[in-house]
Amino acid sequence: MYLIEKSNVMKLAEELAKSYELYGPVTDKETGQVFFSRVDNASEISLSAELPALPPKSVVFPQIERIMKYKYDRDAKKAEIEADYDKSSKAIFGMRPCDLTGLIVLDRFFLGQEFVDEVYREHRKRMFIVSNTCVVPFKQCFCVCTDSGPAADEGYDLNLTEIGDMYLVEAGSEKGKALAEKLGLKAAGDEYVALKKEVVDKSISLFEKVATDNKAWISRVMNRVTTGFIKEEVWEYIGKQCFECGACTFVCPTCSCFNVEDHNRFDGSTDRLRTWDSCSFEGYTKMAGDHNPRHPVEDRRNKRFFCKLSYSQSKKYLRPGCVGCGRCQWVCPGDIGLPNVVTYIRREITE
Amino acid sequence: MSEMDNKIITIPEIATIEEIKDEIQDVKTFYLKFDNPEVDKNFKIKSGQFVMLTIFGAGESAISLPPSPEDDRFHLSVRKVGKVTDALHALQVGDKVGIRGPFGNGFPFEEIKGKNLIYVAGGIGLIPLRSSIVHALQHRDEFGRIIVLLGARTPDDLMYQYNIEEWLKIPGFECYVTVDQPTEGWTGHTGFVNSLIEKANVPVENTVAFVCGPPVMFNSVIGDLMKRGMKDDCIISTLERHMKCGIGKCQHCAIGRTLVCTDGPVYTYKQIKTLGEEI
Questions:
Q1: Alpha-carbon distance values, A140 to A136, A201, A209, B150, B213 (Å)
Q2: Do A259 and B250 touch (CB under 8 A)?
Q3: CATH code of the domain covering residue B13
Q4: How much is the pLDDT for A39?
Q5: Do B136 and B221 sit in the same domain of this protein?
Q6: Does residue B248 form part of some domain?
Q7: Same domain, B52 and B141
Q8: Which residues are registered as beta bridge partners of B221?
């Protein structure tokens, strides 16, 4: 544990910018919206900004990404294939605990299963993560329901917690420790363990008053979703409200379905692109010959909630797929963000 | 599958089309050989697995493997049905394609030893079953009766007729064929493939049935087999889904709580019933 004055905290980001591509929450001057952006200068980052509109998922899993390029000369019968992985080193500064949990879920899914995803592994290999404890929740937060905040337990290189006019800096890795030592941060006394707990407890106590938009008590719902004892009418009701826009999946820190497409260039070469996809799109399961096993919208719609809330899917993530950031509720035009769906299902259970 | 773990599975290996055979309407068989001799030597498959086939300039598709794991030329039989397969059918001998794989669990070959094997195929449903049939016939002594029930729309839609003629020379191989719409000169059986179950006097005890075909045929065949007293965990099928990666990441092939690419494509009917989704 180390300490750094609030006025000096961005020195960490400046130091990281020397050897990493730096990403952090940036407030757009015109719209006031917050996004995770690549910054040239650490001063663009705002640690106190509200939860970014999009999670930093795109840093490790870009919306469109070339994973391979090839060229086939049909006359010469010559094919050349070249893998195209992102080998840059990236640092994410000021990531909120929910988004960090989302990243951990993606790690377990892409790296911890039978097959390892090479493309993802290259993104993650040289990454530096600085997380930021939420000392006050935001309006749409429900991470206390999903065990993913307001403070991060794991997955960071450095974790920042605002305590008074200081930031408590905890190192979660050798890499993190080395950076703190390099900057000569002064060591924090043992009393800071209790001080941090106080800050986190206070944050939790504020949820009732501040985080009023969403609540999602998911444990009983998880049981129902897993066992399948949810009436078809409930899914139909939810399906009817779905616009099939895919926004919920795009803003979700843990949604990782992708499509792969080959795009031909004018020079005769082809790019193999991997792009975000959404289980709510009608073409998602459509096979060659037009057979679509998941034609009705509710058949597709319930899959997302199955993915987030069922026990069998949680086995892959080693936790629920939902991290309580509230973004899906925020963007859904049909009012069926995850917290609302949980409410519908709970209502059915109580009835 | 552990040896696959460290392999780069995102990148296809290049293979050359050595021979093309016209099968039935819109279906061709492509005999392939890997350009890299090392890959060619080490390419081992299990019956029931599939590969991801890249057609340069068109894209990638999941294609089931018809060759036997032993002593069989590497080939793929593909129906022209979409963008990638259209492009494949336009290729000629000498053209290159990309192959990733093999992927999937495959048929439980060890577990079914000593049993009677029934293969029920509708149309091109015979393609994924061919691998297992050839493999079983290569080990003829290790099985009881080996019966193939084959249904097709017309006599011209019967897959692998030349193979069947070969197989019929092997003692104890039984094959029954039927068509829904007979053409002139057809002297064989007419009707749906389930009508052959009775005709072949399909055994039930110590028997495993492999069923593959369009969903309607699949459901009615399974219904008839169950009526005869066959247990749901003795009926095996291989499913197909839209796939993008083959390695359990893109999630397009999710069915119930499983992924067809890594948990399948081979399922018992007992498993299929618990998936809770349309086949």
A1: 12, 19, 12, 59, 49
A2: yes
A3: 2.40.30.10
A4: 93
A5: yes
A6: no
A7: no
A8: none
Could you give the ipTM of this predicted complex? 0.87
Domain-embedded: residue B254? no
Interface of B with A in 101-160 (CB under 8 A): none
- Chain A residues 193-252 with a CB less than 8 Å from chain B: 228
Q: State the best of A111, A114, A259 to mutate against chain B, taking most chain B CBs within 10 Å.
A: A114
Structural domains counted in chain A:
1
pLDDT tens digit string along B29-73?
999 999 999 999 989 999 999 999 999 999 999 999 999 999 899
Give the global pTM: 0.90
In this predicted model, what pLDDT tens digit does every residue of B209-249 receive, in sequence order? 999 988 888 889 999 999 999 999 999 999 988 999 999 89
Does residue B265 lie in a domain region? Answer: no
Q: Looking at the DSSP assignment, which residues form a beta bridge with residue A91?
A: A22, A128
Same domain, B97 and B192: no
pLDDT at A351: 65
Residues 6+ apart with CB under 8 A from A236: A298
What is the Cα–Cα distance from A203 to B106, expressed in whole angstroms?
Answer: 52
Q: What is the mean pLDDT of residues A158-182?
A: 94
pLDDT digits (tens, 9 = 90+) for A227-281: 877 888 888 888 888 888 999 999 999 999 999 999 999 999 999 999 999 988 8
Query: A297: helix, coil or strand?
Result: helix
In order of A13, A19, A46, A54, the CA distances from A43 in angstroms are 8, 16, 8, 20
**B223 vs A: CB within 8 A:** no
Q: Note down the domain range covering A250.
A: 2-350
Spatial separation of the C-alpha atoms in residues A297 and A282, rounded to whole Å: 8
- How does DSSP classify residue B141? G
> Into how many domains does chain B fold?
2
Q: Is the pLDDT of residue A93 over 50?
A: yes
Searching chain A, which residue's CA lies closest to the CA of residue B11?
A83
**Residue B124 and residue B97 share a domain:** no
Q: Are residues B35 and B121 in the same domain?
A: no
Q: Please check whether residue A105 is in contact with residue A171, taking contact to mean a CB–CB distance below 8 angstroms.
A: no
Asked, for residue B255, whether it belongs to a domain, the answer is no
A246, containing H or E segment:
none
CB B245 to CB A286 under 8 A? no
Question: B137: helix, coil or strand?
Answer: helix
Instruction: Say if residue B4's pLDDT is above 50.
Output: no
Question: Same domain for B227 and B195?
Answer: yes
Residue range(s) defining the domain that contains residue B189: 116-238
For strands B59-64 and B50-55, give the pairing.
Answer: antiparallel
Higher-pLDDT residue of A311, B8: A311
* Closest by CA position to A214, among listed A140, A143, A150: A140
Q: Do the chains contact at B82 and A264, CB–CB below 8 Å? A: no
On whether both B121 and B207 belong to a single domain, the answer is yes
User: Residues B112-138: pLDDT tens digits?
Assistant: 999 999 999 998 999 999 999 999 999
Question: Looking at residue B189, which CATH number applies to its domain?
Answer: 3.40.50.80
Do B217 and B181 share a structural domain?
Answer: yes
